[in-house]
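Reopening this ticket.

The earlier resolution said the output was attached, but the attachment link was broken on my side. Pasting everything inline this time so it's all in one place.
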Amino acid sequence: MFSTTTTYEVLSYTVGDTKAGTKMGKLQLKNTEDNTTLNCIMWEETINRLDVKLFRVGNLVRIVSATFNERFNNCLISSLELIKEAKMGLSEEEREETFDKIIKHLKEIKDDKLRAFILDYFDRHSDKIKVSPAAKTMHHNYIGGLIVHTLECIELAKCTIKSLYQDINPDYAIAACALHDIGKIFEYTIDDENGLIDYDDEFKREWFTHSQYAYSMCMTNGFKEVAKMIAAHHGRTEWGAILDLNERDLEPYVYFVHHIDDLSAKFGRISAGML
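Inline output:
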């Protein structure tokens, strides 16, 4: 049942167009008492009246006024109140520290050509890399989320290779972990005033996914093993993979980054306020 005292956490927020040409907001909330999900919509009048900062992922909010369906799992919101504002992401100092840790790992790559290529790329795009989110809703979706996810993947890979999978080339594994999501610096936009994330229309016109971007970049520069790891990191084609891990007779190494990426995505915090 609906109660105006219930606190919800913002999970995601998007705005689209209706058939009538007006704006409609879609807001997904989580009940902090029982962890159930509430899917909400808002008409243009409500969107224009409320402060956009209300909809930041991780915010704690209270529904002041709404119309619910019979199951109370969908609603039309007309009024919302902020209870606690979420952190938008890493501070500038935290971003610099995390980025420097990644660079330190990349400098350990023994293959001269690969090391020079990846360090040059990170240097040229450092500003974007430091602020980009790693996803819109699923994981690490905050300012600096991409570098947190990237660092987690690299460190998970190094630990795993050392203890379990010593036959995997560490240079290729580290490079693939560093580059598998690099296209997200162009795929997403993030507003540094309110922390809201959206897709970049220009990127969508030129590329299918961030995986295609990173795969193409590595193939063009001759790093085929790295490219294959990146091509398979989403696991299944229906999940966005270029190389489906259901195929037979694949080289064992192509599975590696998929599992590392999945670990970080599953356990990585969604909200920067949870770090």
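Reporter confirms the inline version is readable. The chain has a mean pLDDT of 89. Strands lie at 7-17, 23-31, 37-43, 60-68, 74-84, 188-190, 197-199.
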